[in-house]
Structures are given as C-alpha cells and as structure tokens.
Design goal:
- The protein contains eight helices and ten strands.
- The protein is an alpha+beta fold.
- It has two domains: about 80 residues, Phosphorylase Kinase, domain 1, CATH 3.30.200.20; about 180 residues, Orthogonal Bundle (Transferase(Phosphotransferase), domain 1), CATH 1.10.510.10.
- A six-stranded antiparallel β-sheet has the order 1-2-3-4-6-5, covered by helices on one side. A two-stranded antiparallel ribbon has the order 7-8.
- The longest helix is centred in the middle third of the chain and has 20 residues.
- The protein is globular and about 55 Å long.
C-alpha cells in the first residue's frame, strides 16, 4: 500500500513593483522565514531604499506573529545604538510592516561561508566586543535578544550590526525550543528561564562558528544527525568540540572564553561585560 505525502503550498511572494503599504514599493524578496517575509523596498516618503519586514500571507491571522513584529518595530524605533539597526516606521493593520534602514554588507554567515580562511583572533575579538556592546545595551533596556547567531549579524566596514529582534523579550520563562535550533542555550531548548546568560551563550556560539566555520552544535557525524533528526538538542547531550578538533588553532585564552560562554550552566557563564573585557586582551591597537 503506497502513501503520498502532502506538501504544504508556499504562499506567493510579492512581485517587484507591488505595494507593501502606501508609498512603499517592493524591489525584491530578500528572505522568507517560517513567519516573516523580508523585502527590499523603495520608500516614497524617504526617497530611498529600505528593508521592509512583514508577516507572511499564510501567517497574517496568527496573533503571536503579528504581536512579535509590532514589538520589534516599537523597540527599534525607541532604541538607538551603533550596533543595532534603525527603524523608520511601523505600519499597523491586519498585516503590519516594519520599515528599517538598509544595512549594506553581507551577514556574518555569508562571510564565514565565502572566506577561504577563517577570521584572525583579533578580528574575532573585535566582532565579539561589538556584539557585547549591542547586547549590553539591550539588556539595560530590559530585553534579551535570544537569537544571536551569524545569520543575524551584518558586517560593514568593520562594524557589526546585530539584527532581528523578532523574538526579543524580557528575562523569564520561554516555550521549549524558542530560537534557532543549533544556537539555542540549553535553557532555551528546554523551555526554562532565560536571562542575560542566554545571550552570552549566543555570543559564544557566534564566535565559535566565526572561528571554525561550523556551528558548535551542528551534527558531527551520522549518529548525531540521527539524534538531531529525532528532535534531540545536541547541546543537551554534549559540550561544544574544541576548535582544534575542527582544525582551528586559537590563543588559549580565547578558547577558554568561548568554552566559558558555552557552559551548560547559565550560572557558570561570564557576564556580557566580562566577555567584553576579556576579549579586549586580544584587540591591541584596535579601537572598540
């Protein structure tokens, strides 16, 4: 007896020239996630290119998705920091749109994938201190990012910008698995209390991948691929591998710092300020 799998049909994306909102014209789709579409658009009000985040057509009636996007727009219009993007407007309605500045430059994920050689330790430290700067600011405003990873960092002229506050929220309990699977702190994966230490984990995971080219909890072999496919979070069953196992030699102090950030116990992770200061020992001659 044969069975036929049912594949969900993707809703269409907006074509170039379509109106996202009055005065906001689509240039092209940049990315599509599980809940949101991100477009390059042209703003008639600003007379320039902008980034427009909006809810996917098939998620327009999901209140949680709409509320998260509206909160992101509100936060980014209120916040002002050199390592966070600016929001110009939040358009409310059945399908909200958040209008953001265009940040020229590739994501850190794209840089990692395209570079023939890994970032040197001084560049890693410079990157990490900028991520600490943005994260510290968010924490002082009462919010956690909860999705710090290479795909959410844009680099331009030596400046890192931490993007995507779509799941940002105050410290407290979260649903199991909130965030991006291979970068979840154990407390996120298990749906426990998240805190500033959860974002320290994200900084450590990002630095690990920038250093080695691999996420710290991506499957290392076939058995781990099976575990991951079965829904097991690898960060709950093993520590991150040593960078040297993946062919990367780093200063001993940086290896220790990344391992400390990736401690399974949030109480054992260093503070954001401590990470910032410890990274400073590797940035001689660089202005942070």
């Amino acid at each position: 007896m044969s069975t036929t799998a049912t594949t969900a049909v993707e809703p269409p994306v907006l074509e170039p020239g379509a109106q996202l909102a009055p005065g906001l014209q689509v240039v092209e789709l940049l990315s599509r996630g599980e809940a949101l579409d991100v477009y390059e658009a042209f703003s008639a009000d600003l007379l320039c290119s902008v980034i427009a985040k909006t809810v996917r057509p098939d998620r327009a009636d999901v209140e949680r998705v709409r509320d998260r996007l509206l909160l992101e727009g509100e936060l980014l219009q209120r916040f002002a920091h050199p390592h966070l993007p600016r929001s110009f407007a939040t358009i409310t309605g059945r399908v909200p749109v958040v209008v953001l500045e265009t940040i020229a430059g590739p994501t850190l994920e794209e840089i990692i994938d395209s570079r023939p050689r890994r970032l040197p330790a001084t560049d890693l430290a410079h990157l990490g201190r900028q991520l600490c700067s943005a994260t510290h600011y968010l924490h002082r405003q009462g919010y956690l990012h909860l999705d710090i990873r290479p795909a959410n960092v844009v680099a331009r002229d030596g400046v890192a910008v931490l993007i995507d506050l779509s799941i940002a929220r105050p410290p407290g309990p979260v649903r199991r698995g909130l965030g991006s699977r291979e970068y979840l702190a154990p407390e996120q994966a298990l749906g426990l209390l998240v805190s500033a230490a959860t974002d320290v984990w994200g900084i450590g995971a990002t630095l690990f991948e920038a250093a080695t080219g691999a996420a710290p909890f991506a499957p290392l072999d076939a058995s781990e691929e099976e575990l991951s496919a079965a829904g097991v979070y690898l960060q709950s069953v093993r520590p991150a591998p040593a960078p040297s196992r993946l062919g990367r030699r780093l200063p001993a102090g940086m290896v220790t710092l990344i391992a400390d950030c990736l401690s399974p116990d949030p109480e054992q992770r260093p503070s954001v300020l401590a990470v910032h200061d410890r990274l400073g020992t590797f940035t001689a001659g660089l202005a942070i």
